[in-house]
Every structure is written in C-alpha cells, then in structure tokens.
Amino acid sequence: MGRWIIFALVLSGMELFGEVMTFTKEVPVYRSEESSRYVSNRVPVEECWDEEVPVEDSGSEMVGAIIGGTAGGILGHQVGGGSGKTAATVGGAIIGTLIGKSLAEREARPGYKIVRRCRTRYRDEQRRIVEYRNYARVLGREIVKYSDRPLRSIPVKITIEY
Predict the structure, then answer these.
(1) β-strands 141-147, 153-161: how paired?
(2) Alpha-carbon span 33 to 39, nearest angstrom
(3) 147 within 8 A of 32, measured Cβ to Cβ
(4) Tens digit of pLDDT for each residue in 100-140?
(5) What's the predicted TM-score (pTM) here?
(6) How far apart are CA 137 and CA 90, in angstroms?
(7) CA-CA distances (angstroms) from residue 102 to 70, 76, 143?
(8) Residue 156 contacts residue 24 (beta carbons within 8 Å)
C-alpha cells in the first residue's frame, strides 16, 4: 500500500510541476501550386420585341348586311304596289342583305395592331476561381494552407506540454 501512495504522489507532483508552452512560428513555404476551378451559372435573359399582327374585322360583314338589307327593303317598298308591295319589300331586303354582305367581305381589309412579345433565354456564364495550395513542413509533417495568392510563409501555432 505504501508503494501506491508514493506512486500517486509522484504522478500528482508531475501534474503540479508540468508546463504548457504555446508559441507561433512562421514556417517557410517550399512550394505553391495554382489550382483553378470553373463555376457555371445559368442567367435568364429576357428578349422583347414589338410585332405587327393582322386583326380580322368581323363586324364589317354584319354592318354591310344590315345596311344592304335596309336599303334593299326601302327600294323594294318604292317599287311594288298593292299586295306586291310586301313581296317587293321582303325580296329587296333579302337581295340587299346578300349584296351588302358580299361588298363588305370584298372590301374588308385586315387591320394591324402592335403586340409586345417576349421570351426568356438562358445564358451560361462561367467564372474561373483561382486559389493557391501552399506547402510547408513543420516538425517532420507536411502542411497545406489554401489562399488567394502564393504565400512566403505560414503562421503555425505550436503547443508543447511536459
């Protein structure tokens, strides 16, 4: 039992008198290598333009038929007499409607309007990122530090316990 007490005291004495030293040392870099990579981004680009498009005039046929029917009915009413007056009015209206619609179709010209059209395209942008791998040796070990430029030395924090 006495031995264990002595052993415990020796161990605790080491703990009491142990020291820790920490310092920073500049270690020279013996090699720097350029390393690059490419980053690609898809960027949306909107393209717009004005375009002239035809517009159909669907109302002109109807207007022509109404005007033609009315004019034909009036003229038919003027021509006939007695009971034939009604038949002449109806016949004039029908013929006037057909003639008015036909004339409106023949003379109808499509109109145009300006329409804004857009589409999205994608453009690939590439960006080159350059970094440097800096190599140094500390206490027999190789270390690597990445940076945006070549380094002459690398600061290393060293801790020694005894």
Answers:
(1) unpaired
(2) 20
(3) no
(4) 777 776 665 667 888 999 999 988 888 777 899 999 998 88
(5) 0.38
(6) 113
(7) 15, 19, 93
(8) yes
Q: Strand runs (DSSP E) across the chain, as ranges?
A: 20-55, 111-138, 141-147, 153-161
Ramachandran class of 100: left when φ > 0, alpha when ψ lies in -120 to 50, beta otherwise: alpha
Among 129, 132, 134, smallest CA distance to 37 is for: 129
Residue 61's CB is within 10 A of a number of other CB atoms, namely 16
Would strands 20-55 and 111-138 be described as parallel, antiparallel, or unpaired? antiparallel
CB atoms within 10 A of CB 76: 22
Q: List per-residue pLDDT tens for the chain, 162 residues long.
A: 556 666 565 556 555 566 888 989 899 999 999 888 777 888 899 999 999 888 766 566 677 767 776 776 677 667 766 667 777 777 777 777 777 777 776 665 667 888 999 999 988 888 777 899 999 998 889 999 999 899 999 999 988 887
144: Cβ contacts below 8 Å, ≥ 6 apart: 133, 134, 135
